[in-house]
Amino acid sequence: MRHDILAPRISDSSDEGVLVTWFVEPGARVREGDLVAEVQVEKTSAEVRASAGGMVAELLVGTGAVIVQGQPIATLDTMEAAAGPIQTPSTSASATAGATAGAAVSSAAVAAAPAGRPVTASPAARRLAGELGVELASIAGTGPAGRIVESDIRAAAGEAPRAGLVALTRMRRTIADRMRRGLLEAAQLTITAEADVTALTGELAASGARSGQRATYTAAIVRASALALRDHPRAGATWTDEGLRLPERIDIGVAVALDDGLVVPVVRNAAAKSLQQLDAEIAELAGRARAARLTEDETRGGVFSVTNLGGYRIDAFTPLLDPPQAAILGLGRARPRPAVVDGTIAVRTLVVLSLTFDHRVLDGAPAAAFLDAVITALEDPGRLF
């Protein structure tokens, strides 16, 4: 009996997407729920799992093909479900080179290395590792937090950097279109200020010692921004032709870097959550973002965004707005520097904050007042804990 596997519906704003990769080939036997493909709509990737057990009879679209949400992308012969042992996508003899590694990463971003060292790699890196026969556990990743990226795999396989034209992914095009539209539609302006986070750094370390899990600067900046937005709601407003729409709830986006772009999952009702709750939620969202397991809803509805480049040697930068948001806050690295304290020079941990805002929504003085409120919270960590 013929059974169709359908492309999932993961976006209400766009019908079309791209089939990123197959993890099965015709003739592979699968169980209901087995991973068979990965698709991407706008900036959101999703797994496609078998909706019934059987043998893969036909792949109806190729890798890289444009698909419409809800359309059939493969057919199963369900009469073959009992005709021999089930051969899952991860054990299929030749299911799209690298399917074993690809299936593993789509299910989880982190796998255990033989020596017990956690191995974190992007979906694209795992697929490439399977294709080139590279053992992930032997590689030191150069991506954020030691994550293994495609360039690490190619270097380990002895491939020289490839010159020439690099094809644009759908995610890259989406990011480019949104950023260009934001620059064309909004009157973007950036202001910067320095915060003394010496006390906060100590509190984060002490809290980690007590709980066994140290909260991050990202969680602290989200918490401080949420508190500031309660008193300065216009920083979370959006521009419409009828007027400024003030936020009903403080939902804050947190930028997460990927191999070929970034996504901004949203922390809901951030002002009502503790620093520890925010830290756990941000880590969970970031992990699923890197494993391409976010839903469309989890990247929508933010009224303000935070982006952190503190993991690199970056002091200050100009973050760009994510339309229709009116403000975004960038965090540079926190590092010891000489500062004047009570008339004397002392070593303090300082960090530069960069606030980009839409001058149509906010003027300079209220934007400065909002940024000052964020800094006040960071410099008095009792407000955050």
The CATH superfamily name of the largest domain is Chloramphenicol acetyltransferase-like domain
Q: Which stretches of 5+ consecutive residues score pLDDT under 50? A: 84-117
What is the ordering of alpha helices and beta strands?
EEEEEEEEHEEHHHEHHEEEEEEHEEEEH
Alpha carbon gap, first and last residue: 59 Å
The portion of residues assigned to helices is: 25-40%
Describe, in plain words, how this protein is organized in 3D.
The chain is built from 8 helices and 21 strands. It is of the alpha+beta class. It has 3 domains: 1-93, Beta Barrel (OB fold (Dihydrolipoamide Acetyltransferase, E2P)); 97-164; 187-383, Chloramphenicol acetyltransferase-like domain (Chloramphenicol Acetyltransferase, 2-Layer Sandwich). The strands form 6 sheets. Strands 11, 14, 17, 18, 19, 20 and 21 form a 7-stranded mixed sheet that branches. Helix 1 (99-107) runs antiparallel to helix 2 (123-132). It is globular, with a radius of gyration of 23 Å. Mean pLDDT is 82; it is low at 84-117.
